[in-house]
Write a structure and sequence with these properties.
Two copies of one chain form a homodimer. The first copy, chain A, is of the alpha+beta class and 393 residues long. Helices cover 33% and strands 28% of the residues of chain A. The first copy, chain A, starts with 7 loop residues before the first strand and ends in a 5-residue tail after the last helix. Chains A, B: Belongs to the ArgJ family.
């Protein structure tokens, strides 16, 4: 296990937001102000912590701390929810000696209920006192909801002869039964980067990774990704080295994104949908999303069924432009469809073993241009329905 | 049971396209040339019968016959599939003494395999000989695939003191395991209507009905709706009476569309998503489709779960314009969400009984304009996954 980036301390405590007794409040503090960036849900209903974090970052792209609670989403909670969110930042900031405006909040859990402020008041001093006693692995564990495993990715790179470290923690595309998916992630880096450069690298990395995974297409009111770079390694990254840092950042987020799909509710497969030859990237994305969201394709993958017809039908209704006879569909390296017809390969036999694995690749070549896109998607399983159809009758 | 429209005869035979011995080839013949219209799948991969039927109708909007086979879709079959389709029309036309150009084909079943032409040659004379020995109920039964029940809707109306009859037959949004959904429908009318007027009434009725139902969002290579009006009642419908006929036609198709959702694979619910107050109808449609396609909403309905959060989240990611605090969500008449927050009603108790029923209404008021849209959607159930995840390993 590689070390965590320098200059960040972690704390987790059980505040009692959840029914079971387990850490449900997690804090990261940077010893010095860190360059900070955030990407948030595009849902029109935005949770209070999303609104507050966005405000803090747009006022000044600098942060000293990130505080995340699980168990309560503080979404659809009106003005009281906004006030409560700001109060939690005051409580945590005061306990740690940090301005509230430099604390970034995120929440995940049941929506529509107000935060238990008494529990926050009780927990904040304990949280501050615990700083340095926990690791980023503890942090990843404390933000879990229905996740089957904590999600951590680490990376080191050498810049100007010195080691720069990155670590990312995430919680899952596994939904919060009985509410909705919330994806939260924090990535930390001990390089010094200008706010403009960090923002650019961060948005680009998120776009190439988290924005290209799907479990069920539902996005939550709380989805949040934060990136903090505090300079504690003593290395300033600029000029040509920025590309190296961007590559490492993308790698960390890509590994977390893969884990999100792997741990999607009830998922048994990680389907990699690779579309090429589209008129442009946007049409390639439309094809990838139509295939990756198709209930029929997702159940076929669960059923280990080399069902080219469902893939072809999804491609055909995606709205993308192409000639039917130019499309080639390949599943796990076996060509299923070409010249408007299934190939004459015995693909049921050829694919029996490959489709038993966790990773399934669907290559779709449209023959209409150079646009391409890649999406990771989960399958649709009995356990997905079990988890989400919680009979109350 | 009301009578069938005058001047149409029906025949069904077992041609052997399916594994089990049952009628799988069905024919309608009109005694006189009928004004004909068709609506077809928008999927870019179009089955041979879709291409041929479209050609026949665009050459001349008149038909004497409709022939439908189940068991083989004749989709993704290349040039040979096109030739075979035209040959089937020759065979049926010759057997019935009708020009092949006035026979409209549709097919449903396994895709990617060529039609069994020997079976068509053997069956065509038997089919012609059986004309008049079967009813429209037999027709509806012969075109079934995985449908749980045949789908028929009838309607009479008086125009100028004379009875005009309509009958519609459909097969289902239940998928053809292990391939894809195919929806086929034929509506017959014994009024005389000009091609222009019939086309307009028919497209409008399809748009208000079949285009507003969804089981899983997947559309097939073969989806087809035909409408034939043969004038055998002796009544010519024109002028103000056209609105009456249009209303009756829409009613017939609406009842069939409801049955398609009711019989969606594994479905236990028919969810009526009614969106109002959108900026325009297109945004209302986007909201209705996002909610109706949401796996989380669909599993919640299956689970009889008054889960306002999932509905709100789907509304929020639909892309429609509105203020979060203006949205009102009502489930089976019980207001769940208003002013950006859940209402304080005890909706779990209030909705326990209503959510046990088959029909569930979701009203979504956006408060942003006058746009509205209504969509019928099925739920997502264990049986859906059972039916579509056919383990081959």
């Amino acid at each position: 296990m590689s070390a965590s980036p320098k200059g960040f301390r972690f704390a987790t405590v059980s505040a009692g937001f959840r029914k079971e007794a387990r850490p449900d409040l997690a804090l990261i503090v940077s010893d010095t102000p860190a360059t900070a960036a955030g990407v948030f849900t595009t849902n029109r209903f935005q949770a209070a912590p999303v609104v507050v974090a966005r405000e803090n970052l747009s006022a000044r792209p600098v942060a000293r701390a990130v505080v995340i609670n699980s168990g309560q989403a503080n979404a659809c909670t009106g003005d009281e929810g906004m006030t409560n969110c700001r109060t939690t930042l005051d409580l945590v900031g005061k306990a740690c000696g940090i301005p509230a405006a430099e604390v970034l909040p995120a929440s995940t859990g049941v929506i529509g209920a107000q935060l238990h402020m008494d529990k926050w008041r009780e927990a904040a001093p304990r949280l501050a006192a615990a700083l340095g006693q926990n690791t980023h692995h503890d942090f990843a564990r404390a933000i879990m909801t229905t996740d089957a495993f904590p999600k951590v990715a680490e990376r080191e790179l050498a810049i100007a002869g010195t080691t720069v470290r990155l670590v990312g923690m995430a919680k899952g595309a596994g939904m919060i039964c009985p509410n909705m998916a919330t994806m939260l992630s924090v990535v930390l880096c001990d390089a010094a980067v200008t706010p403009e450069a960090w923002q650019r690298l961060f948005l680009d990395a998120v776009d190439r990774t988290f924005n290209r995974v799907t479990v069920d297409g539902d996005t939550s009111t709380n989805d949040t990704v934060f990136g903090l770079a505090n300079g504690a390694s003593g290395v300033t990254v600029e000029g040509e080295d920025l590309a190296k840092l961007g590559e490492a950042l993308t790698d960390v987020l890509a590994r977390l994104a893969y884990m999100l799909v792997q741990d999607g509710e009830g998922a048994t497969k990680v389907m990699r949908v690779k579309v090429s030859g589209a008129v442009d990237d946007a049409e390639a994305e439309a094809v990838a999303r139509t295939v990756g969201h198709s209930q029929l394709v997702k159940t076929a993958m669960y059923g280990r069924d080399a069902n080219w017809g469902r893939i072809v039908a999804a491609v055909g209704r995606s709205g993308a432009s192409f000639k039917a006879e130019d499309v080639v569909v390949t599943l796990c390296g076996v060509e299923l469809f070409r010249n408007g017809q299934p190939t004459d390969l015995d693909f049921d036999t050829l694919l029996r073993e490959p489709l038993k694995g966790r990773d399934v690749t669907v290559d779709i070549e449209l023959g209409a241009g150079t646009g391409h896109y890649e999406l990771l998607a989960s399958d649709l399983t009995h356990d997905y329905v079990n988890c989400n159809a919680d009979y109350r009758s």
